[in-house]
Specification:
Blueprint: H1 16-38, H2 40-44, H3 55-59, H4 71-91, H5 98-126, H6 137-140, H7 148-156, H8 170-181, H9 183-192, H10 195-209, H11 214-230, H12 232-239, H13 242-256, H14 258-261, H15 267-287, H16 291-296, H17 299-306, H18 308-325, H19 332-374
Helix pairs in contact: 1-4, 1-17, 1-18, 4-8, 4-9, 4-11, 4-15, 5-8, 5-18, 5-19, 9-11, 10-11, 10-15, 11-15, 13-15, 18-19
């Protein structure tokens, strides 16, 4: 019996611009958390009764300038990127190897999250988190008692969403885990159905879900990334036209922030669809040659981009603890200046001590698992002739 051909791991060439885009998204999330930790007016737009916006506050909250710090919208960009990157090998014709994929992906997601929870718990206990009168509601939301149920949500990430006691950024990892587990379904859809139809249906689902359904609001975003991976040659051909590229580059960040500048009411459902379209446009313009990709490939953007997951996981406990240490009501500029160095140091340390070793461990476990599952069966020996 012939041994079956071993399954080879196919790794598409790394698009460095997408690393830079991850870095841009992570920095926007950081700035967003600094703002909602310091600006009562801006934080009220997300938590509690919204206060009137005037002057500069209105300009940075109700116009496309909100893209500079709209953390939740930039998380949608992360989701499109995940759908795109995890689907690339299959889009290039590689056979999906579950034995390699699942150990690799699960380790790469959960180990850094658990390490980040330990870090957040240490920071939380080291610096007192006590409710401050006049502080933003987002900051005071971090003054909560420990809960075993909430901690279980943070550890497992697939249970019912909780308050995320130590760090709120884990809400997005819940959807990352769900998509990672369901990746074969997404790949099957991309292979069986027209990509344009998948994109239209995904956007329609997002619009239908609006703010009321997390499943419809976020899971179809990953499908947009998967469709982009399978149709990237057509997208690249379309964006080769300078005019089309320019329109996409300008329109994408505007569409990304549609929930902020579009009228409220029924229009908000459409705004979520436009936001997902803008996130997809940003990924598309980053993956093709052009000024945007060139900027994302610069050394500073690459440095941050390679460490974006670490930055995303460790920044919030530092921002919150520093805000409380400064009395609970620091200015945005003061808090930003105070957290930049600690966040940078923690990011670099977390990347070196946790994320990078975890990547190596994940690859090793994935390869070992694949070899065990797909190893060749023993060759049957012919019986010796009787004498």
């Amino acid at each position: 019996m012939e041994a079956p051909e071993p399954i080879r791991e196919v790794r598409p060439s790394r698009n460095r611009a997408l690393d830079g885009l991850r870095g841009l998204a992570a920095v926007a999330v950081l700035i967003g958390h600094v703002i909602v930790a310091t600006s009562v007016v801006q934080a009220s737009q997300y938590f509690g009764e919204p206060q009137p916006l005037t002057g500069g506050a209105w300009l940075f909250a109700e116009t496309p300038l909100v893209a500079l710090w709209a953390g939740q919208e930039w998380v949608v960009v992360f989701f499109v990127l995940s759908g795109y990157v995890l689907s690339l090998a299959a889009a290039d014709g590689a056979r999906f190897d579950a034995a390699r994929y699942y150990p690799t992906r699960i380790v790469r997601l959960y180990v850094p999250v658990w390490a980040a929870l330990v870090f957040a718990a240490i920071v939380h206990e080291a610096i007192a988190h006590e409710r401050v009168a006049g502080a933003t509601q987002w900051l005071n939301l971090h003054v909560t008692e420990w809960s075993a149920t909430t901690t279980a949500h943070e550890i497992v990430l697939l249970l019912q969403a909780g308050d995320y006691y130590y760090t709120t950024v884990l809400w997005s990892l819940r959807w990352e885990v769900a998509f990672s587990l369901l990746l074969p379904v997404f790949l099957l859809c991309a292979r069986r159905f027209p990509l344009r139809l998948l994109a239209v249906l995904s956007l329609a689902a997002i619009v239908a879900g609006g703010p009321g359904s997390g499943v419809l609001r976020y899971m179809p975003v990953f499908m947009l990334g998967t469709a982009l991976a399978f149709g990237r040659e057509q997208v690249a051909a379309a964006l080769a036209d300078r005019r089309t590229y320019g329109v996409a580059l300008v329109a994408s960040p505007i569409l990304l922030t549609a929930t902020h500048w579009m009228p409220e009411g029924a229009w908000q459902h459409a705004a979520y669809g436009l936001g997902a379209l803008g996130a997809t446009g940003l990924v598309a313009t980053a993956m093709v040659p052009g000024p945007f990709a060139q900027w994302l490939e610069t050394r500073p953007m690459q440095f941050v981009g390679r460490r974006s997951f670490s930055l995303y996981l460790v920044h919030e406990p530092i921002v919150v603890a520093t805000a409380f240490a400064l009395g609970g009501r620091p200015s945005t500029i003061v808090l930003l200046a105070c957290v930049l160095l600690p966040v940078a140091a923690a990011t670099i340390a977390f990347y070196r001590l946790v994320e990078r070793p975890t990547q190596k461990l994940a690859r090793t476990l994935g390869q070992a698992s694949s070899q065990v599952v797909h190893r060749a069966p023993p060759v049957a020996r012919e019986p010796k002739p009787e004498t």
